[in-house]
């Protein structure tokens, strides 16, 4: 029941910070209610302390859950009251001095008299409510100690149940090879354990890491019983779990290790074991293992500390032993052994998933034809998770009505089945353990992931900005909220509860997914505790029982029908998301949402100018996404959104920002523009050059700006606005476009000198075709030496000298620079942090690309896109860490391609061809790939001959060299691409990849 604890505590913590800030301000208008606010803050602090105590327990009774819900609702209402009050206080409040300041203060006192009276009344009522909530807890004689006792008992029972649950998988299907999908994995692990040992000290330690329910325990069990693991003299299988007692584990280990030893009836080695202390147990185990070949499995390890404690009993002078550790945590796995001994457990592929499912449901393992289609739907929901496949299969096997309609109903109601069906109880508990084990401050952020639809990739940039707007990220030290959020995500990935889909070139996660079954678990938690409410398609189409809806997500599922919603609940909504709807799904007036902080309307094509004017009255709004909508422009009244932090109008027709936008002094992220993608992995992309937006004069007033993308400076007014960039001392990411005269670059160049310390990402795009358009970059007095990403399009006479000093540069792309030679290439080869290099059409003018020894030591991604002068490409000891190579050629290089082989590029995982494929080059690489032992993938995406797809995010420039296959829909013949794809840091994009059937790409896995 941590959902309500986490949600309640999170709400109160946010409010306490806000109340503290209000009480610490210089507002004189707090006179008369300051004491009331202080008392209310004190009351809520006491509630917070109690909530933290409750978080240590795993289960709570109904009275406790009701009390926590009431605490959360009081906190939300107090915060709403304070936000409204502060909005009135801050309106038209500026920096004034002397008599002017005094007169303004007096005027404000009169102006806000009615507001202050209402706030004073509301605070009195809320303080009374808070006190009654506290009294109610005592009145019903709630006992924290009793609850803890009950929780501990329940916890022990559940762990006992769970300890055996994951082990019934082999019992269903037979041991060893009889278990679907385990044969090859068992052989692989046994092979590792049987390998010839080097003369190292200590046993071989192997960690199996993976998502809960993926089969780690099952695999460990089959290895434990495998006859292929020869010569084992003693063995032990020790379930550790979240709560463990070291002494009990040591006793169990010693008893199992001695079970196979010859015993003297008169000399029991375990005599009086209960009287031994832990030191005696350590000594006995170490002595017994000193000269034996043994196998010890430590199952379900949640903390590295557990391994540290048990490792003391392992003798260091015997290298014949083997220890297998199963864990959900990558961090634990890395702490227990070296990276080369970590075995990553993957989900079952499509074929094995079907075998396991049909074997579970049907005795012969043969599925009736009429159930095949619905079976595929169910298996997609299971997403290769053996525990889910078997659990749902067992449930369906018990159904009397084996009909497609009945099975489809079960699939649609899987979330409620998880909560109520005894057959699925074990799976729900196992998956819930991963959530329960999260640190306290991460739980609300993880619950928030259930807002995104099944199978959808969650864009990390948007997610982080939403977390921040919702107040779910707790600030620490000198880190930004984005940095803290990235730490949160890394923790989720380490615990195997979030699946990374794409990585940026610096290693940061760019998009992720949550497994469907885990999604069902956290959806159930969120809905039950009113953390999030859902409307539309799907099973959670209700807000029944929720007094006030705080976060509302409307999933239309493509339907054009309007959704009925009780309007009385909407006024309390703090977050509203409506995605990809063609008609307005809810009859709602945006102007009624006066308390809203987050509004995401991505893909809502029905959005009108009238809607925008209503939205611009939402004074508390902090996050606004109008991405991929049909809006042609923003109203000037957008300047009224004083609290706005993120404004996203990417993939729209907005080409100019109104003057009013310069009044947004809290805005951090100003996002506009779109990309076209030429490969399914999105390794090759092209900015929609006409998609930038002109910025008005007054840009310097927006001192909080951290990111501007993409600003069009191709007019006198917008160019002059660039003179104010130097005032934006927090600006870290900047994308600037000029498609007209080169003279417009001069003001920008002057400001760029003033941003040298802050910029981390810079994109400069020129299309004026006047000559040396980007030459100003060569002449910079104070270049941005802390850049991590640099992307240039436009003519340069040479590579700027300061590029050689970019020690932090991880990503570089060059397009149509025309004059960069082999000497410049050698400079790039010495950059110590460069991970991604993309050389597009005319981005390199030399005739040869030579990757020599000690060049490009960190490079993992290389794109060579139709370089006009290229006659030779060779790898001779450089770029030894290269993982992905993307190639497009106008013709066969006369001096050939050399060095693409396992001797030079031993880490290469994929070679992808795009555009017009030169068959002889493809054949050459394909033959070289056959020698790779690591299943090198070779893909080709032929340039389509059909008309380019429509839509603002899919416009493809086919007017010149450098374009490849456009963004198109995959067909059934296509082979899935790798899950981990490297992208530019600024790329959060975008629509699904599309290829017409006649130009379907092909993948070859060798």
From TrEMBL:
Question: Which terms are listed as keywords in the entry?
Answer: Coiled coil, Leucine-rich repeat, Nucleotide-binding, Plant defense, Repeat
The UniProt entry, under Pfam families, shows: LRR_14 (PF23598), NB-ARC (PF00931), Rx_N (PF18052), WHD_DRP (PF23559)
Q: List, for all copies, the residue spans of the domain called Disease resistance R13L4/SHOC-2-like LRR.
A: 572-920
CDD domains per the UniProt record, alphabetical: RX-CC_like (cd14798)
Residues annotated as coiled-coil are: none
Q: Which residues form the NB-ARC domain?
A: 197-363
| Residue span, Disease resistance protein winged helix domain | 452-522
In this protein, which residues make up the domain named Disease resistance N-terminal? Answer: 11-93
- Bias (Polar residues) occurs at 952-974
SUPFAM superfamilies, per the entry = L domain-like, P-loop containing nucleoside triphosphate hydrolases
User: Which residues lie within the region annotated Disordered?
Assistant: 937-1000
Per its record, what are the GO molecular function terms? ADP binding
What InterPro entries does the record point to?
A: Apaf_helical, Disease_R_plants, LRR_dom_sf, LRR_R13L4/SHOC2-like, NB-ARC, P-loop_NTPase, RX-like_CC, Rx_N
Organism domain of life: Eukaryota
Q: Give me any GO biological process, just one.
A: defense response to bacterium
Protein name per Swiss-Prot or TrEMBL? Uncharacterized protein
Species this protein is from: Hordeum vulgare subsp. vulgare
Q: What is the taxonomic lineage of the source species?
A: Eukaryota, Viridiplantae, Streptophyta, Embryophyta, Tracheophyta
């Amino acid at each position: 029941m941590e959902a309500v604890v986490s949600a309640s505590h999170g709400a109160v913590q946010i409010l306490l910070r806000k109340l503290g800030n209000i009480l610490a301000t210089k507002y004189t208008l707090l006179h008369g209610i300051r004491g009331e606010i202080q008392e209310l803050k004190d009351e809520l602090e006491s509630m917070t302390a109690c909530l933290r105590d409750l978080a240590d327990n795993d289960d709570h009774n109904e009275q406790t859950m009701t009390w926590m819900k009431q605490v959360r609702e009081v906190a939300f209402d107090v915060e709403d009251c304070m936000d409204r009050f502060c909005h009135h206080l801050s309106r038209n409040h500026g920096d004034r001095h002397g008599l002017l300041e005094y007169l303004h203060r007096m005027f404000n006192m009169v102006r806000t008299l009615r507001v202050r009276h209402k706030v004073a009344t509301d605070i009195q009522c809320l303080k009374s409510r808070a006190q009654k909530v506290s009294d109610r807890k005592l009145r019903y004689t709630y006992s924290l100690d009793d609850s803890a006792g009950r929780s501990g008992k329940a916890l022990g029972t559940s762990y006992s149940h769970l300890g055996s649950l994951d082990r019934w998988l082999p019992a269903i299907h037979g041991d060893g090879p009889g278990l679907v999908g385990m044969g090859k994995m068992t052989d692989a692990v046994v092979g590792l354990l049987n390998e010839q040992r080097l003369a190292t000290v200590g046993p071989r330690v192997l960690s199996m890491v993976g998502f809960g329910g993926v089969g780690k325990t099952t695999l460990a069990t089959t290895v434990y019983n495998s006859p292929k693991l020869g010569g084992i003299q003693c063995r032990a299988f020790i379930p550790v779990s979240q709560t463990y007692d070291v002494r009990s584990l040591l006793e169990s280990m010693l008893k199992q290790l001695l079970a196979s030893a010859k015993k003297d009836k008169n000399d029991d080695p375990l005599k009086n074991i209960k009287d031994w202390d832990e030191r005696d147990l350590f000594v006995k185990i170490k002595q017994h293992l000193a000269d034996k070949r043994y196998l010890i499995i430590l199952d379900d390890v949640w903390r590295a500390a557990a391994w540290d404690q048990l490792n003391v009993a392992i003798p260091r002078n015997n290298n014949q032993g083997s220890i297998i550790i199963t864990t959900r945590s990558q961090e634990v796995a890395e702490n227990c052994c070296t990276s080369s001994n970590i075995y990553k457990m993957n989900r079952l592929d499509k074929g094995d998933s079907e075998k396991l499912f049909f074997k579970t449901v049907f005795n012969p393992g043969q599925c009736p034809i009429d159930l095949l289609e619905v079976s595929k739907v169910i298996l997609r929901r299971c997403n290769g998770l053996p525990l889910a496949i078997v659990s749902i299969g067992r449930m369906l096997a018990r159904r009397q009505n084996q009909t497609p309609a009945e099975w489809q109903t079960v699939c649609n109601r899987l979330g409620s089945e998880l909560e109520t069906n005894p057959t699925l109880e074990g799976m729900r508990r196992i998956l819930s353990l991963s959530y329960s084990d999260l640190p306290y401050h991460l739980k609300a952020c993880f619950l928030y992931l259930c807002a995104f639809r099944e199978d959808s990739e969650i864009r990390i940039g948007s997610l982080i900005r939403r977390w921040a707007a919702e107040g779910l990220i707790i600030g620490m030290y000198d880190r930004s909220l984005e940095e803290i959020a990235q730490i949160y995500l890394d923790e989720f990935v380490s615990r195997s509860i979030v699946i990374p889909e794409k990585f940026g070139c610096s290693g940061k996660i760019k998009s992720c997914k949550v497994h469907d079954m885990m999604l069902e678990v956290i959806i159930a938690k969120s809905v039950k505790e009113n953390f999030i409410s859902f409307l539309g398609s799907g099973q959670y189409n209700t807000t029944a029982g929720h007094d006030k809806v705080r976060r509302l997500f409307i999933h239309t599922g493509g339907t054009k029908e309007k959704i009925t919603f009780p309007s009385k609940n909407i006024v309390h909504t703090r977050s509203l998301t409506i995605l990809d709807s063609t008609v307005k799904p809810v009859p709602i007036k945006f102007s009624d949402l006066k308390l809203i902080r987050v509004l995401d309307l991505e893909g809502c094509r029905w959005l009108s100018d009238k809607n925008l004017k209503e939205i611009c009255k939402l004074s508390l709004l902090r996050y606004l996404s109008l991405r991929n909508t049909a809006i042609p422009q923003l109203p000037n009244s957008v300047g009224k959104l004083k609290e706005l932090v993120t404004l996203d109008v990417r993939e729209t027709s907005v080409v100019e920002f109104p003057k009013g936008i310069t009044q947004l002094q809290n805005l951090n992220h100003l996002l506009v523009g779109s990309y076209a993608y030429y490969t399914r992995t999105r390794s090759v992309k092209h900015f929609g050059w006409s998609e930038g937006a002109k910025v008005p004069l007054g840009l310097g007033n927006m001192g909080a700006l951290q990111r501007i993308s993409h600003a069009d400076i191709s007019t006198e007014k917008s160019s002059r606005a660039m003179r104010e960039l130097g005032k934006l001392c927090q600006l870290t990411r900047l994308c600037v476009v000029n498609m007209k005269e080169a003279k417009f670059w001069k003001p920008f160049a002057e400001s760029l000198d003033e941003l040298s310390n802050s910029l981390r990402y810079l994109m400069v795009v020129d299309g004026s075709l006047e000559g040396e358009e980007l030459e100003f970059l060569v002449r910079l007095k104070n270049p941005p030496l802390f850049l991590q990403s640099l992307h240039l399009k436009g003519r340069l006479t040479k590579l700027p000298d300061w590029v050689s000093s970019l020690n932090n540069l991880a990503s570089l792309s060059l397009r149509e620079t025309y004059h960069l030679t082999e000497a410049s290439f050698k400079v790039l080869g010495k950059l110590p942090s460069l991970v991604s290099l993309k050389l597009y059409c005319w981005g390199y003018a030399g005739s040869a690309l030579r990757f020599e020894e000690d060049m490009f030591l960190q490079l993992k991604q290389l794109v060579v896109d139709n370089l006009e002068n290229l006659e030779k490409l060779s790898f001779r000891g450089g770029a030894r860490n290269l993982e992905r190579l993307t190639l497009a050629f106008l013709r066969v290089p006369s001096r050939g391609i050399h060095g693409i082989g396992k001797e030079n590029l031993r880490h290469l995982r994929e070679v992808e061809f795009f555009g017009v494929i030169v068959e002889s080059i493809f054949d050459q690489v394909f033959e070289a790939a056959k020698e790779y032992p690591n299943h090198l993938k070779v893909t080709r995406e032929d340039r389509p001959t059909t008309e380019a797809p429509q839509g603002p995010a899919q416009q493809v420039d086919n007017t010149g060299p450098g374009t490849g296959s456009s963004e198109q829909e995959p067909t059934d013949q296509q082979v899935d691409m790798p899950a981990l794809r490297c992208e530019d840091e600024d790329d959060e994009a975008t629509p699904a990849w599309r290829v017409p059937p006649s130009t379907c790409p092909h993948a070859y896995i060798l």
